[in-house]
Amino acid sequence: RMNVRKITTSSQALDGLLGGGIETRTMTEFFGEFGSGKTQICHQISVNVQLPPEKGGLSGKAVYIDTEGTFRWERIEAMAKAAGLDPDTAMDNIYYMRAINSDHQIAIGDDLQEFIAKNPSVKVVIVDSVTSHFRAEYTGRENLAARQQKLNKHLHQLTRLAEIYDLAVIITNQVMARPDMFYGDPTVAVGGHTLYHVPGIRVQLKKSRGNKRIARIVDAPHLPEGEVVFAITEEGIRD
Ligand code: ATP
Ligand code: MG
Asked: Where is the RecA family profile domain positioned along the sequence (predicted)?
């Protein structure tokens, strides 16, 4: 865990839960129901990575892979202004890529290594959401194994990028009730081989009253247990 660096979320509570912020060299998954704040956190990190280290950033750029069409430049503008960054520069520092289906998403993943080698200032790669195309396209029990296999390869590729280029990888996953329903599909697990890749850090998000959200770390022995509350405001993620 040497040389790991952190990106602030703009919430001290959430940073505390994460041991200081979103880590480089690691994949962090945010999962939770619709409206739980996954996409808002992704927007916030693509802004915050640009902050200087003394303000909790890495003076870096972001790659934002949008699979659901929910990315909004206006949100980047508002969050950048609130963070004291020039909005136009902040928008220029985000490489936006829209993945139209799972094959396209995988193709973008295949090209990322070369892209980041050429753009070493990229310090975060975001995939929001990593699962939606796969879920929509590979329906039915007979396609589960193929789905898991493709998704695993994609996740492994992203993890390798994090390690090789000392960057943070953030993925999101819309999950309703049980966090393990998707990655740990029992149908796929039968047969003994571990088909699913467990990302470095998994954060479960839940809706609370009004603009409040609850975050909880799942399966991370090195991080403290417990829940924290944060808020989604006009300015972005806050305590
Ligand atoms: P999904 O699974 O549907 O993608 P999500 O977890 O990505 O959901 P977000 O889109 O991050 O959810 O969160 C949506 C919530 O963020 C809205 O319900 C709203 O409360 C809040 N939000 C979005 N934009 C703003 C804004 N400009 N000002 C304040 N709050 C906002
Ligand atoms: Mg979303």
From this structure: 3-175, 180-239
| Residue 109 marked as a ligand binder | no
In order along the chain (239 residues), what is the average pLDDT of each group of 10 residues?
Answer: 88 96 96 95 99 98 98 98 98 98 97 97 97 91 89 93 96 72 41 50 94 91 85 98
| Owner of token pair 């704040």 | 37
Amino acid at 155: L
Which-ligand-closest: CA of 40? 1
- Structural contact between residues 226 and 216, judged by C-beta atoms closer than 8 angstroms: yes
The alpha carbon of 41 and the centre of ligand 1 are apart by a number of angstroms equal to 9
Say whether 143 sits in a helix, a strand or coil: helix
**β-pair type (122-128, 61-66):** parallel
236 and 85 Cβ atoms separated by less than 8 Å: no
Query: Rounded to the nearest 10 degrees, what angle do helices 38-48 and 73-82 cross at?
Result: 60
Task: State the pTM of this model.
Answer: 0.93
How is the chain split among helix, strand and coil, in percent rounded to 5?
40, 25, 35
